[in-house]
Amino acid sequence: MSLFRSERASAGLLLGAAVLGLVLANLPTGPGLLAIKNHHLDLPAIGLDLSVGHWVSDGLLALFFFVVAVDLKHELIRGDLNTVSKAIVPAIAAIGGVLAPAGIYALITLGTAYGSGWPIPTATDIAFALGVLAVFGSALPGRIRVFLLALAVLDDLVAILIIAVFFTHGSNLLFLGLGIVAVVATFVAGRFLGRHRGAAGVLAVVVVVVLAVVTWYLVYRSGVHATIAAVAVGLVLPLGPARKAVHTLEPITNGIVLPIFAFAAAAVAVPSVGLGQLSPVFWAIVVALPVGKLIGITIAGSVASRIFRDPDPARRSQTLSTVELVTVAMLGGIGFTVSLLMNELAFKKSAEIVDEGTLAVLLGSAISIVVAAVLVSSLKRADRRRRLAAAAGASGSGAGAGAAASGRG
Question: N or C: which end of the chain has fewer CB within 10 A?
């Protein structure tokens, strides 16, 4: 199970699952695969009407969003975002990384009926981005990973807010109110986690799990996207027990949940049309993901670094150089998981546009992956040369000092 905790393995599984889904959907197996994806597994007695694909995106993916929420809470309380001074630069960079892609998408789709897709290129896939960094830049300075992690966590927060605000339609206030009550009950029950052992401890865990499932159901019935329930549960649980739950769930989310979602989301038939016949949605996403993230994160991050320059030289060494910031910006262009989800939510009434949007997310993310891999590899080589030069300089200084001491002797 430790394999599925690896950022490299997680990124590899995500990419492999997406490629497999895309390939199988365009082979003779395609019609059967798509029929399974669209087959409904309803529970009419309790008002659940979901296809297999929606059970994956609304149900299984809730586990991923729970993990995201707990990681966000940890970073805000104990991690790299627990003070304003630590969070301000990556926060401004993250905002730039949302506004620029959204703006580019809006410009390309201006005057069309596809404006609702602006959130699609604003997301960053934290697992994939960290995985690419781990594969190609394992020996790079820790400040790059720290900044990327902070940026991606804040980006996830924005994505959660976008889903909650812009992809909520026809809310049922009764179920929404009951969902809030269930979240409060989860908060109260969570106070007992870790305080008792034996049967009482097991009972506390069972109660919290049951309340979490009830919260998911009520939020789904309310019209709010069901993954928001998982976010709420992750935020209200005590951090200690929640982190233990994440540790248990991590191999499941990395090894099962995310690959299944990537496979299902990427299982689309490639449109048999010329490039000129593709909708503006396709081109907007393909351009906005890599280019928008590059422009937004680099400019906003550079400006913020200069405005909030740390007066302490020791801490100032943790500031990213321009090249490092550009590299992080390209890693931020890997939208993937959350972008695929937003694509489904934005165009759920048009299967053809969903398919084009999916292909655009995959292509835009692939461009970001390739460019980021090149940049990370270049940074790694430059860092290795600096270390070798520093070691040679230190060795030369030591030899010179020894010779001087021998002469005096």
Answer: C
Tens-place pLDDT, residues 399-409: 555 555 555 55
The CA-CA-CA angle for residues 172, 176, 182, to 5°, reads: 150
> pLDDT tens, 211-238?
999 999 999 999 888 889 999 999 999 9
Reduce the DSSP state of residue 396 to 3 states and report it: helix
Between CA 191 and CA 181 the distance in angstroms is 16
Which residue stretches of 7-141 are H helix? 7-25, 30-38, 52-54, 61-77, 84-108, 126-136
Q: Which residues form the domain of 360?
A: 2-44+84-167+265-389
- Look at residue 187 and tell me if it is in a domain: no
Q: Is residue 254 part of a domain?
A: no
Using the structure block, give the residue that is written with the tokens 């007992």.
192
Domain annotation covers residue 36: yes
Question: What's the CATH number where 151 sits?
Answer: 1.20.1530.10
Count the domains in the chain.
Answer: 1
Q: Is residue 246 part of a domain?
A: no
